[in-house]
Structure formats: structure tokens, C-alpha cells
């Protein structure tokens, strides 16, 4: 079995408060000989006001883990808590309440958008879901400001009048209107080119710094993980092989899989 390395300094343990905790979480798809163990005995914390990234290659179980954190996929075994409440098996109203606290931004800012909707219409629908249509324009503009899309004309644009990075920032603004405590971004930048990607990553660090947002960022790219994260969790074949503060993981990786991922990003060692 693959060794799991936890890099936290015991002297610092407890200096950050966990908002979300997963303990010994497993996910198996299918049964018998066709069973796929996508996530194996994974434990980690998401600390308040920090950006944590899960990094790993395709098929390592990152998205499965993200969907379980979001309550979109039942776990096979283990426990998950949010603000010390058990969120392992949420249903009905409790699940809806959880989805206000925990918002998601996914990979594809193109398909998430109805091409015939203006930004105003997209965001108004989100406000209606909140039962908060009254707050209207002011709330939409506030959310757009947070993602660096100011100016009233943005509200009247259609998707094709926005760049990919702008569309992704609109999706982040939409999530922000719910006033979440935590944001889960699953490969939210992987369809963007390099300059737009940095732009969206900077929006996420601003949300952490200005709003104290807790963010879980999922990526296959350890370069992005290092650029953004306070803590890095590395997954290989469903196992969390290494986790710890970003500096420790990138400058002194203990697991050979982490070293291999890092060797693909030569710039980091310059
Ligand atoms: N609904 C499902 N049914 C069966 N197997 C699944 C299902 N979803 C995921 N898997 C399997 O679980 C494993 C982990 O998949 P997952 O999508 O979580 O990986 P990932 O690291 O997010 O990869 P990628 O970056 O390619 O999305 C893979 O072997 C995948 O084939």
C-alpha cells in the first residue's frame, strides 16, 4: 500500500481552525470484480480562510473527492464535517442549507452559460433561487466587483461578448452572491489560456484575502497548486500520498509521486 505523508508541524497543529474535515473517506463505484476504488481512506482538513488544493493526475480521484465534499455524491464510508456538523449524509432542507454555505465553480465556463442569457439574467436567476430578487442590481454589481468585473455594461453582455476568463469570473460572482463560507473550484481554470488563468487564480486569492473565504481548488497542474495554495494535498490512484503547507510540499517533497509531479514543472526549482 502507498505510504501517506502528512507534513504538518505538530507545533503548529491547532493554529488553524478546520472549517471542513474528512476522515477515512472511501468511495467505491460499482460492485464485485467491476468495483473501482476511486478514493481510499482519505483524511484531510480545509482550514478557515485558507486555499487548499488537491492535485493529482487524471483518474487520481480528485473530482470524486470534490463531488463528495459538495454533497453531490454519497460516500461509501468515513465521515465529513462542516463547522463541526456531520455532513456525511445530508438530505432535504439540511442539504439545501449546506449548498448555501458551500458553493461550486466547475471547469467549463462555456457550457454553464445559456448563450441567450445576458449576465444580468443569469445572475437574477441565482438571486431568485435565493428568494432575494429585491436586492437586485446592487447585489449583482457587488459580486461582479469582487471578481474585477466592474461597470454596468457587463450586466447586459451575452456570453459571446465575454472572454473565457471573464465568463469564469461571472460564474465565481454567481457563487459569491450566495454569500458562501466555502468555495469549491474543480479544474476551474483548465480551459483558460495562461494569462486568463492567472487572472482567475488572482481572483481566488483576493477572495481569501479580502473576504476570508475558505477555498478548495482542484487541479491536475501542480504549478497552479503551488501558485495559489496555502496547503497542498497530493492524490495518486485514490490515495492521498502527501499533504502539508505548500512550501514544505514543493521545496521538500517526501513522496516520490510528488517529486515526479514537480519534475514536470522545472520553473519551480529555478
Ligand atoms: N460514476 C463513476 N462510475 C464508475 N467509475 C467512476 C465514476 N466516476 C469516476 N470513476 C472512476 O474513479 C476514478 C477517479 O475518477 P475522478 O474523476 O475522480 O479522477 P480525477 O482525478 O478527477 O480525474 P480527471 O482529472 O481526469 O477528472 C477513475 O478511475 C474513474 O474512472
UniProtKB/TrEMBL annotation:
> What sequence ranges are listed for the domain ABC transporter?
20-262
Organism's domain of life?
A: Bacteria
Give one Pfam hit by family name: ABC_tran
Protein name as it appears in the record: Peptide/nickel transport system ATP-binding protein
- Report the source organism: Microlunatus kandeliicorticis
What GO molecular function annotations does the UniProt record carry, in alphabetical order?
ATP binding; ATP hydrolysis activity
| UniProt cross-references to CDD domains, sorted A to Z | ABC_NikE_OppD_transporters
Which PANTHER family did the record assign? ABC-TYPE DIPEPTIDE/OLIGOPEPTIDE TRANSPORT SYSTEM, ATPASE COMPONENT, ABC-TYPE DIPEPTIDE_OLIGOPEPTIDE TRANSPORT SYSTEM, ATPASE COMPONENT
For this UniProt record, the keywords arranged alphabetically read as follows:
ATP-binding, Nucleotide-binding
Amino acid at each position: 500500500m502507498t505510504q501517506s505523508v502528512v507534513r504538518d508541524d505538530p507545533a503548529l497543529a491547532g493554529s488553524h481552525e478546520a472549517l471542513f474535515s474528512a476522515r477515512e473517506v472511501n468511495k467505491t463505484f460499482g460492485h464485485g470484480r467491476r468495483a473501482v476504488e476511486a478514493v481510499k481512506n482519505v483524511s484531510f482538513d480545509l482550514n478557515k480562510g485558507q486555499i487548499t488544493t488537491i492535485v493529482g493526475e487524471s483518474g487520481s480521484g480528485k473530482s470524486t473527492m470534490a463531488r463528495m465534499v459538495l454533497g453531490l455524491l454519497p460516500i461509501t464510508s468515513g465521515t465529513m464535517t462542516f463547522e463541526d456538523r456531520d455532513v456525511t449524509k445530508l438530505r432535504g432542507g439540511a442539504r439545501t442549507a449546506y449548498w448555501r454555505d458551500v458553493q461550486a465553480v466547475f471547469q467549463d465556463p462555456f457550457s454553464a452559460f445559456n448563450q441567450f442569457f445576458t449576465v444580468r439574467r443569469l445572475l437574477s436567476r441565482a438571486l431568485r433561487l435565493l428568494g432575494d430578487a429585491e436586492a437586485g442590481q446592487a447585489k449583482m454589481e457587488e459580486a461582479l466587483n469582487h471578481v474585477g468585473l466592474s461597470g454596468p455594461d457587463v450586466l447586459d453582455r451575452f456570453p459571446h461578448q465575454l472572454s473565457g476568463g471573464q465568463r469564469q469570473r461571472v460564474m465565481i460572482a454567481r457563487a459569491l452572491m450566495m454569500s458562501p463560507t466555502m468555495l469549491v473550484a474543480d479544474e476551474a481554470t483548465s480551459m483558460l489560456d495562461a494569462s486568463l488563468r492567472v487572472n482567475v487564480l488572482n481572483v481566488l486569492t483576493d477572495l481569501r484575502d479580502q473576504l476570508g473565504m475558505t477555498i478548495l481548488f482542484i487541479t491536475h497542474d501542480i504549478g497552479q497548486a503551488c501558485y495559489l495554495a496555502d496547503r497542498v494535498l497530493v492524490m495518486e490512484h485514490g490515495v492521498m500520498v502527501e499533504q502539508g503547507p505548500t512550501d514544505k510540499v514543493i521545496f521538500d517533497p517526501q513522496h516520490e509521486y510528488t517529486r515526479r509531479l514537480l519534475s514536470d514543472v522545472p520553473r519551480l526549482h529555478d
